[in-house]
Design brief:
Blueprint (H helix, E strand, L loop, with lengths): L1 H12 L8 E5 L13 E10 L2 E4 L1 H6 L8 E5 L2 E5 L5 E4 L14 E5 L2 E5 L5 E7 L1 E2 L6 E6 L2 E4 L5 E4 L2 E6 L4 E7 L8
Antiparallel strand pairs: 1-2, 1-4, 2-3, 4-5, 5-6, 7-8, 8-9, 10-11, 11-14, 12-13, 14-15
Length: 186
């Protein structure tokens, strides 16, 4: 709710100077000319500063919102899910884009830890782990003390820490006490 209020206040009270608008990327709406649009990069369409995302009116109208009212959006080195009313959620970069919704949840960072949000962009679970994978069959692999580190190919890999599994209530179903190589697959 606070992000939504911040977006409205910023849009109506603090106009963005033309020089502040930066590039963004998104999939535009289908048109008669473009029946299968793909991700495009646009100039001077958005700004993301101090936790506030602003998208120009022209571009918010051009976003291709899905049946849940969500559009994937990229600006200032960050991926977001955006709603038509201006609400937004910065999400984890995953597989060359926004984190997927798995079992109805997507991941974002909250106070430096992975948290899960629903398709209304509401916080559902903030278990407080340094990393957490998407849920699969009601469980998510999590770690405490692991660190994202670049490999020689430019990808990010997780190193170290203790690993386990949680359920959708945030309860450990496999205790977070194992090295990554020793984690039981329960």
């Amino acid at each position: 709710m606070l992000r939504y209020i911040a977006v409205i206040i910023t849009l109506f009270i603090y106009p963005v100077k033309a020089d502040d608008w930066g590039a963004c990327g998104y999939i535009p709406k289908k048109t008669d000319q473009y029946q299968h649009p793909e991700m495009e990069v646009f100039n001077k369409c958005a700004t993301y500063k101090s936790g506030i995302l602003q998208i120009s009116e022209e571009h918010i109208k051009n976003l291709d919102f899905d049946k849940f009212g969500l559009a994937s959006f990229f600006s200032s080195g960050q991926y977001f899910y955006v709603k038509p009313d201006g609400r937004f959620l910065p999400v984890i970069f995953y597989d060359n884009g926004t984190d997927y919704f798995e079992e109805g949840l997507t991941r974002s960072l909250r106070k430096g830890k992975v948290a899960y949000y629903n398709k209304d962009l509401e916080l559902v679970l903030a278990p407080g782990y340094d990393w957490a994978w998407p849920f699969h069959n009601g469980k998510a692999l999590v770690c405490e003390g692991c660190v994202l580190t670049p490999d020689k190919y430019g990808h990010q890999v997780l190193k170290g820490g203790l690993w386990g599994y949680i359920n959708k209530q945030g309860e450990e179903v496999v205790p977070v006490k194992y090295k990554a190589s020793d984690i039981p697959n329960k």
